[in-house]
Design a protein that fits this description.
This protein is an alpha+beta fold. The chain is built from 10 helices and 10 strands. The protein is elongated, with a radius of gyration of 27 Å.
Length: 275
C-alpha cells in the first residue's frame, strides 16, 4: 500500500510526502531513477540490493537505505528471498540536518535498526492517523520526528569536527544561550555562574578573554538590543518594554538605554517613528 500526502504549508521545517509498504515479488526492481525528496526504506523481511553512486549494497532484514533528492538509485529484491519493506518519503529544511545527525548521507546511505519493531509501529501509526481530521498533518509530522529521533539515537557516533571547540568557547556559548533565553528575568552574574557550574570570577575571566567584554556588559547590550526592537510597537509603553527586558526600575532602564544607544528611550522611539 502507499499513501501520497499534499505538500505541507504548516510544517515547512519537516513534513511527510508519502509512506507505504510492499512485499516484493522475486526480482522486483525500481530504477535507475531519481526522486524529488528524501526516501527511507526499512527492510522488515528478506533481502535485496541497493545501488547508488557506483556502490552496490547487499541488504537484509533490520537494515534500511536512504534515497536522496535528485540522485540516481536502483534497488532490487532478491530472487529467492525477496524483501518486504516499508518506506517514508519526506522533505523540509531540517531534513538534511537530522539525517546527518543519524549518520545518513549520500556517501553513507545505509542504517541498521534491530532493537525492536518501532519503525514498523510508526508506519502503522501513520496509517491509523487517517481517523484524525483537524490534526492529522501535525500528528504525522510528530511521528516523522519520532522516527528520525530513533535513527539519531541508535545511529553511529557523530564524527569529530575538524574544528574542535575549546572549553572556553563552550562556556561562552552557554553564557550567551542563558542570557538570550532568560534576559527578561532578574538574572545576576552569580545565577549564570551557578547555571554553568563555574566559579563566578573564573567564568567572568573566560568570557572577557574570548569576547573582550564582560558578561554584565553583554547582558545589558542584549537587553537594550531587544528593547530597541520593541520600540516600533505602539501598543507598548516605555515601562512595558523596560519590564519585558528585565528592568523593573524605569530610571535604571533609561540610564542603561542612554549608555548603550546615546539617547533616552523616548528620544529613540521618537526617531524610530519618524523613519
Amino acid at each position: 500500500m502507499i499513501e501520497y500526502l499534499p505538500r505541507s504549508k504548516q510544517h515547512t521545517e519537516l513534513y511527510l510526502t508519502q509512506y507505504g509498504s510492499e512485499a516484493c515479488s522475486p526480482g522486483h526492481f525500481h530504477g535507475p531513477a531519481v526522486r524529488s525528496h528524501y526516501l527511507l526504506h526499512y527492510i522488515m523481511d528478506g533481502e535485496g540490493i541497493f545501488e547508488v553512486g557506483g556502490t552496490r549494497y547487499e541488504l537484509r532484514k533490520g537494515q534500511g537505505f536512504l534515497i536522496g533528492p535528485d540522485v540516481v538509485t536502483y534497488y532490487e529484491a532478491n530472487t529467492t528471498n525477496p524483501w518486504t519493506y516499508c518506506w517514508f518519503g519526506f522533505d523540509g529544511v531540517l531534513a538534511d540536518s537530522l539525517l546527518k545527525q543519524a549518520g545518513l548521507t549520500l556517501d553513507s546511505p545505509i542504517f541498521h535498526y534491530e532493537q525492536d519493531d518501532r519503525i514498523y509501529q510508526y508506519f502503522t501509526y501513520m496509517n491509523e492517523s487517517k481517523r484524525y481530521h483537524k490534526a492529522r498533518e501535525t500528528h504525522l509530522t510528530g511521528l516523522l520526528y519520532s522516527l528520525l529521533s530513533l535513527l539519531v539515537e541508535f545511529g553511529p557516533a557523530m564524527p569529530i569536527s575538524e574544528h574542535k571547540e575549546s572549553r572556553a568557547e563552550i562556556y561562552v556559548e552557554k553564557v550567551k544561550d542563558f542570557i538570550e533565553t532568560n534576559y527578561a528575568q532578574k538574572i545576576t552574574i552569580e545565577d549564570i555562574a551557578q547555571f554553568i557550574g563555574l566559579n563566578r570570577s573564573y567564568l567572568c575571566s573566560l568570557f572577557h578573554q574570548e569576547l573582550n567584554t564582560s558578561i554584565q556588559d553583554y547582558l545589558i547590550r542584549y537587553r537594550i538590543h531587544i528593547a530597541c526592537e520593541m520600540m516600533g510597537n505602539a501598543e507598548l509603553t516605555i515601562g512595558d518594554i523596560a519590564r519585558s527586558v528585565g528592568y523593573y526600575d524605569p530610571l535604571l532602564f533609561s540610564k542603561m538605554f542612554k549608555k548603550v544607544m546615546g539617547s533616552s528611550p523616548r528620544q529613540y522611539r521618537f526617531e524610530v517613528r519618524k523613519i
